[in-house]
Design a protein that fits this description.
single chain; alpha/beta; FAD/NAD(P)-binding domain; D-Amino Acid Oxidase, Chain A, domain 2; 2 domains; 8-stranded mixed sheet; 6-stranded mixed sheet
Length: 371
């Protein structure tokens, strides 16, 4: 019998499985489709809340601690699998996006003071620059906030590395295995049945099913509040070096994320459309116009892709990382909303510590399962 069954093969599930495997557990992942092909793949891979000073302490404490784990997390994966997830500090340039009206200028000055205070308190380097100092391809040379330590990762490659690392460490991955029923007795899960007609049993079960978590748990979700939020992204193929840093435009937090080989991501939307993953023509037009307005060299002829993913929305962007209030061997690691990739190593460590009865490095109270 398995020590742990992980239900969901996105970034949260893969990172959790690998963490437990490295602690000596026997782990099986059950994935409803294919591993690493939902929102974990579809996102941009910025390893920071878009503007961390806009988020609550539970979000920033988890993202900051997870960022501390990332260098070792990536190095181990790269060494073990030979796959380079392209983790690096590209920095992030925050553009104001406000007019020169006195009220808007005053508002932006106040925002900068809040940002600088937060960054100073959390030891995050920041300084005011003119945007062309950092990104000369931008249409406008304007005052901007430069965060040189913000990192990114190429999430599709990170997911490839995680799948391979799980298998290399003895984990079992079973795809196209949607959970169809739970067998629960005496406040413990005895086994789960899947769409493949098979049953699987373990000592512990962790749901890492992202936007599908509440749906999967049915009545056992209790007051869990996780819902799908669609995000659409465009992909441009530009010359390498056109853009070297992440660019974020306030106030709508539109971003451009450059990859080393010249690809540039532009996104993303926040749409509550249930489980509809279709892309739309109006959003394609909107994102294209925003990208071209920021960087005139980005034109329709350079478009190389357009896709959508379903994020696991949660109140305040705070995930649930906890044991079930009543089912004693059921755990949840989900609801990371926009920051599943950012929070992945930290969240995996927290839920693994719960199962293995190890001390926690931070206060996990904010991540409790609402009953």
């Amino acid at each position: 019998m398995n020590d742990v069954i992980v239900i969901g093969g996105g970034i949260a599930g893969l990172a959790t499985a690998l963490e437990l495997l490295r602690q000596g557990a026997h782990v099986t992942i059950l994935e409803r489709n294919r591993c690493g092909e939902e929102s974990s793949w579809a996102g941009g891979g910025i390893l920071s809340p878009l503007l961390p000073w806009d988020y609550s302490d539970p979000v920033t404490q988890l993202t900051q601690w997870s960022n501390c784990l990332y260098p070792g997390f990536i190095q181990a994966l790269h060494t073990e699998t030979g796959i380079d997830p392209e983790f690096h500090a590209s920095g992030m340039l925050v553009l104001p996006g406000f007019s020169n009206h006195p009220e808007e200028v005053a508002r932006q000055d106040a925002r900068h003071r809040i940002a600088e205070t937060w960054c100073a308190r959390h030891d995050l380097a920041t300084r005011m620059v003119h945007s062309h100092e950092i990104a000369p391809a931008l249409a406008l040379d304007e005052p901007a906030l430069w965060l040189p330590e913000v990192c990114q990762v190429r999430n599709p490659r990170l997911l490839q590395a995680l799948v391979l690392a799980v298998e290399m460490n003895g984990g079992t991955i079973i795809e196209h295995a949607e959970i169809t029923s739970w067998k629960i007795a005496q406040e413990r899960i005895q086994s789960v049945a899947t769409s493949r007609g098979e049953e699987y049993a373990a000592a512990s079960y962790i749901v890492t099913a992202g936007a599908w978590s509440r749906q999967l748990l049915h009545e056992y979700a209790l007051k869990l509040d996780i819902w799908p939020v669609r995000g659409q992204i465009l992909l441009f193929k530009a010359q390498p070096g056109l853009l070297a840093t992440i660019v974020l435009q306030e106030p709508d937090n539109f971003y451009l994320i450059p990859r080393r080989d010249g690809y540039i991501l532009a996104g993303s939307t926040v749409e509550e459309v249930a489980f509809d993953k279709h892309t739309t023509v109006p959003v394609r037009k909107e994102l294209l116009e925003k990208a071209h307005r920021l960087v005139p060299a980005l034109t329709e002829e350079m478009l190389a892709g357009h896709w959508a993913g379903l994020r696991p929305g949660s109140p305040g962007n705070i995930p649930v990382i906890d044991s079930h209030p009543f089912v004693t061997n059921l755990y949840l690691n989900s609801g990371h909303y926009r920051y599943g990739v950012t929070m992945a190593p930290g969240s995996a460590r927290l839920v693994s510590n719960m199962i293995l009865n190890k001390p926690q490095p931070l206060d996990v109270t904010p991540y409790r399962w609402p009953a």
